[in-house]
Amino acid sequence: MGYESFEWQETPPPSNGVPRSAWTRQRRVSRWHRPYTFALVIVDLLSALVASYIADSLLEKSKSGFINRSWGLFDGIELFNFFAYVVLPLGWLFLLWTAGTYDRRYLGLGSEEYKRVVRTSVTVVASVSLLAFATKTDLSRGTVATVSLSALVLILVNRAMARQILHYSRRRTGHGAHRMVLVGTLPEALEVYTHVTRSPAAGLIPVAIHLTDGFSAARGIETPVPVFAGRDVLALVREVSADTIAVCGSASAEPGELRRLAWQLEGTGVDLVVAPQLTDIAGPRVHIRPIEGLPLLHVEEPTLSGPGWLIKNLMDRVAAALGLLLISPILAIIALGISLSDPGPVFFRQTRVGHDGRTFRVWKFRTMYQDAEERKATLEELNESDGMLFKMKHDPRIFAFGQKLRATSLDELPQLINVLKGEMSLVGPRPLPADDGDYLGDVRRRLLVRPGITGLWQVSGRSDLSWDEAVRLDLYYVDNWSLTYDLSILWRTIWVVLKRKGAY
Asked: Which residues form the Bacterial sugar transferase domain (predicted)?
């Protein structure tokens, strides 16, 4: 539904940021964070207690002491039980809190929450080891490892489950989401709207647009949310029951305006976020370097070499070898199914473009009839893709068993052979056919890394995305690659495959 509603009024002078008492500071408008954090605290505490119980149970069986259990404390209460079931769980909570794992900026999306939990685990082990050394306590290293690893795994699993519940709530009911007012020009605001609404799990719901350049340029244009101009932004936020203001593009660069808006929002409980014109660059590449009060956004070059890249290559080879070994019975069953569905070769080999423009032959299970290439010419006008790949939701060249393989992405499993040979990676841009000529413009930048079995565009919509959007996501991956990002994409791939979204 489109909107053409515009309102204009005299803008009152903004607040000058008069200091307010920290004791009377207004609570934030967003209400989901407090109960969600309380639930996480309970879950983390239970995880730490269960981890201590697991270690205690193993001790009983092995008859070896974590510490000297005969050392009594406070009228017969054993020091071990006091440390394992009181000090250690509370210590976990304290360190998780100091590490920022309950910060609402990191909850519900991205990998930062999990990275901080892992760093907390390392801190716990270091703290316990230092305490044991300082008190000359006899510690069982196996028990320390059991407690720390058990707690880490339980906390990560429980937080992943809590995140899925939060995402479900955001998608189905809108609870646990932030209602945003977008501030900027109409093209900038609509671009931000498109990005944030593509992922409902992110919990960002634009409810209004406030134009900084007047409503004349937007008159007659249908918009997904109401458009306003010349209004007091804070009054508009209250009117539409929003809790977040997103300053888009060039509006964030206006001298003094962003600072005065931040002053105006002090003590209101409304969040302020900035969507700068510098897009598709994130993570450790971006650093703020203030010089004489001027915050400069320094952008580092992409890291496409070094120790992290070597670890990625090693992980690819090891995972591919183990994967082929473990799933070999599944591969045999699939091969039998293909042979029974349509006589002919089990595998489909096609030349694709890889790292630095080198070509290789990709391995896939055959899902089409043998005359598929000859029949393609008669179906060109039915192509549903706007890019270099031919895509049809109901392609008549695919036999029934092949359709099931595509829906579950099992036809991609033989590409582990390409990964083992070093031609592909587990995560990266998808390898494109080599019969489309040179890769020109932005598309050629995809060749800076090895193509992957899965990638950012697969977990963001797959075949449902436009060609331009798929290229944009691939380039974002190239520019912001990291090992953590790879693991995040692999995890998201599992859910995308189970949902069978965009697979045809």
From this structure: 312-499
